[in-house]
Give the backbone structure.
Amino acid sequence: MKVIAINGSPRATGNTFHALRMAGEQIEARGIDFEIIHIGNKAVRGCLACGKCRENQNEKCVITSDPLNEWVQKMKQADGIILGSPVYYSGIPGTMKSFLDRVFYVSGSNGNLFRHKVGAAVVALRRSGGSSTLDSLMHYLSYSEMILATSNYWNIIHGRTPGEVEQDAEGVQIIRLLGDNMAWLLTLREQTKDSIPAPAPVQKVMTSFIR
């Protein structure tokens, strides 16, 4: 089994990275592979709303100026996905938002590639805006029919300078417990996949409210 974690911070080893590593250490302790993909420092453009990923059905975005199609496949092959983000103006940073919009639209347009994977999100910030950012990240996971891993509070950890999150004792416990719970869910999923059939996928019903 493997978990892919997305680092949406421009800083390769900032507090978002430290939070992801906290969860990852708990996951690795249970024999599950863990990899962090740093996308926050890449030039990732936003979705064009062209609909070609849905039309072509090739699991690809037509934009090829960034490695997004490579990331889609890495996430498809993983058993679990963690979205990690800092907070910019009480929300997801622009690069991370562009990444999420395109990755999850490609997934949803090609048979829901992330369906029933175990998903989680973590947020690192200095002071406020954590809840709204975490809520936004969770929208992508829940829309994709993922199995959500939780902790004993919101998955938010505080710190300003890189590594300072290590001083947030409650935050550290939250993120580590999240890693433990995610590893447990992954193990349950793996051990029951042959004995308990998953619900069959359904064709999505689209209702427009203005006709």
Notes: The CA atoms of residues 53 and 105 lie 8 Å apart.
